[in-house]
Automatic annotation (TrEMBL):
Domain NAD(P)-binding residue range list: 4-150
Domain of life from the UniProt record: Eukaryota
UniProt-recorded name of the protein: Protein HTATIP2
Pfam families named in the record: NAD_binding_10
Quaternary assembly: Monomer. Forms homodimers during oxidative stress. Interacts (via N-terminus) with elongation factor EEF1A1 (via middle-region); the interaction is direct and competes with EEF1A1 binding to guanyl-nucleotide exchange factor EEF1B2, thereby inhibiting GDP for GTP exchange and reactivation of EEF1A1. Interacts with nuclear transport receptors XPO4, IPO5/RANBP5, IPO7, IPO9 and KPNB1 as well as GCN1L1/GCN1 and LRPPRC probably through their HEAT repeats. Binds NCOA5/CIA.
Gene from which this protein is expressed: Htatip2
InterPro entries membership: NAD(P)-bd_dom, NAD(P)-bd_dom_sf
CDD domains named among the record's database cross-references: CC3_like_SDR_a (cd05250)
GO biological process, one term: import into nucleus
GO cellular component: a single term: cytoplasm
Alphabetical list of SUPFAM superfamilies matching this protein: NAD(P)-binding Rossmann-fold domains
GO molecular-function terms, A-Z: catalytic activity
Length: 170
């Protein structure tokens, strides 16, 4: 594990050398980082990490994005997620997998009261519609690993929430 300074990511190029697969789950919130900070973390840092990974020999990049990602969205969050998907695809990996989970169900160290309420509600809804509105983070992680273990097809693959559930159970 290498700890890097994302503000000077180019100085850490050696940490991105010699890896076959890259996993990226980097992100923050607008509330925590402000609009500019959110864009810097969720788009700029991710795009730069993808470029460094490719330059370091990475063949398959696996990106956690978001349901509804769309570079033309009028909502900042979804627009930035769509923009970073496009930037990562443009890097030219042999294989690129983009996961678009719905609401992530997880325990957080920080307090996010509205997210906690939403997670409680969606956790209950998940009993009736397990793949519709949410996904446990552990399932996303298992799906990412499953993607890495599958033979490459030489293309971009986008997995929506239901497919993440299916792969995460395998």
């Amino acid at each position: 594990q290498a700890v890097v300074d994302f503000e000077r990511l180019g100085e850490h190029a050696a940490a991105f050398q010699g890896h076959d697969v890259g996993f990226c789950c980097l992100g923050t919130t607008r509330a925590k980082a402000g609009a500019d900070g959110f864009v810097r973390v969720d788009r700029d840092y991710v795009a730069q990490a993808a470029e460094l990974a490719r330059a370091g020999g990475c063949k398959h990049f696996i990106l956690q994005s978001s349901r509804g990602a769309n570079a033309k969205s009028r909502f900042l969050y979804l627009r930035v997620k769509g923009e970073v998907e496009n930037l990562v695809q443009a890097v030219g990996f042999d294989d690129c997998t983009i996961l678009r989970p719905a609401v992530l169900l997880c325990r957080r160290q920080e307090s996010r009261p509205m997210e906690w309420i939403a997670q409680q509600f969606l956790g209950a809804v998940a009993w009736l519609f397990p793949t519709a509105y949410s996904v446990p983070v552990e399932m996303v992680a298992r799906a990412m690993v499953a993607c890495a273990l599958q033979p490459g097809e030489g293309k971009v693959k986008v997995l929506e929430n239901r497919a993440i559930h299916e792969l995460g159970k395998a």
